Amino acid sequence: MDNLQHKVYNLGIRLLDIGLGIAAPFHAKARESVRGRRATDRALAGFAARATGKKVVWVHCASLGEFEQGRPVIEQIAARYPDAAILLTFFSPSGYQMRKNFQAASLVGYMPVDTPARARRFIEAVAPDLAIFVKYEFWLNHLFELHKQRIPILLASAVFHRKQSFFGVGGKLFRKVLPMYERIFVQNRESAGLLDELGVSNYEVAGDTRIDRVAQIAERSEPIPVAEAFAGGSPVLVVGSSWPADERILQRLINNDLPANWKVILAPHEVDEPHLAAIEEKLSIPAIRYAEAQKAGAGAARCLIIDNIGMLSRLYRYGRVAYIGGGFGAGIHNTLEPLAFGLPVIIGPKYGKFGEAVAMIAQGGMYSVRNAEELSEAFTALLPADRYEKAQNAARVFIESNKGATESIMKYIAQRELL
To answer: Is residue 29 part of a domain?
Structure first.
C-alpha cells in the first residue's frame, strides 16, 4: 500500500514538474519557478565550495509567510554559529523574490521539485548537517532522502489539523515521515494532541516563532518620516492588508463615523493603480498617496494611502487601533504585528484557522465584525480610555507571554550538538 501511494505521489509531482515547464512560456510565476530552480542548480556548486569545512544548515520555507516564522531561527543560527553556511530555499517565486538578498543566508534559492532523483542530487550537492523545515512543508522524497542519509531534520512552528493528509484514510504514507524528524516544534496544544492520536512523541510545544519575530520588529522599529509627519500626534487607525471587501465596510467608518481628530493610514494588500484609484473613489475625506506625500508633504490629508510594499509592519508604531484585512476572503492577514505594538485589532469574520485571533477575541484584545455597522460599533467601543487600555493590555500580555519559541529551538540544537 505504501509503495502504491508513493507511486501515486511521485506521479503527481512529475505532472507538476511537466505542468510548470509547459506553463513557463505563458505564465510569469511558472517561468520564474523554472528559471529560478535552474539558477539554484548552477549556484549550488559555488555554495558547496564555499561551505567546505563548515557546518551546513538547510532551511526551507514555502513562501514569505513561512519565512517570517523561520527568520528568527535563521538569524540566531547565524549569530551563534557564525562559521555555519546557511542555505535558504523557497518553493514559491513570491517568497524568493522578496527575500533573495537575505543577508543571514549564504545562499538563497529554490527547493527542487520533489522527484526522487532531484531530491537525491540536491541533498548530495548541499550535504547539510542539519535541515529545518518550517510549518507545513512535508515534501516526501526530500524527507526520505534526508532520513536515508541520517541528516537530522527539525520542523519549526508546526501546526496540525484534521484536514491534513496525515489524518485521512490514505494518510499512511505521510504519517510515515513524522518519526523521521529529530524534533517537531508545534505551535499549540491542539497540534500536540493530534500527534498523540497518531502515536507520535518526538514533539515539543514551543509556540510560534512569528511572535518572536514581531516582538523583534516592534523593538527595533525605525521611524518613517512621512508617516510620522502625517500622524502629527493624532490618534490613527491603521488599516493593514485590505482587500476591496474590507474597504467597502470601512467606507462608512472612515467617511462618516471617524472622530474629527482621527486620521487613517491605509495599506492595501494590492497596490496596483486600479485598486488605489478605487480606494480614492470611496473616500470623502482628504487623502494622499505616500509617494505624493514624500514630495510635497501630506498637507490637510486625513488619510495616507500606502502605495508601496514592505513598510506595513513599521507603520503600526503610529497607530492607536488596527483593522487587518482578509477576513471577508480567504482569511485574515498578519494580526501579530499590530498586537506587538500594543494595538487593539479589528478583523472580519473568517478567522477560525488562526489561533492567535481566537485567543485574542476571547481575551478582549481583538474584535470580529461582519458588516459596516458592527465595524463602527467595535471602533466606538474602543474610544473610552478604560476599554482601550483593557484591550491594549490584552495585546501586550499575549505577545509577552507567548515569546520564546526561537529560544526553545536553539536550546535543542545546542543540547543535541546538532551544529
So the answer is: yes
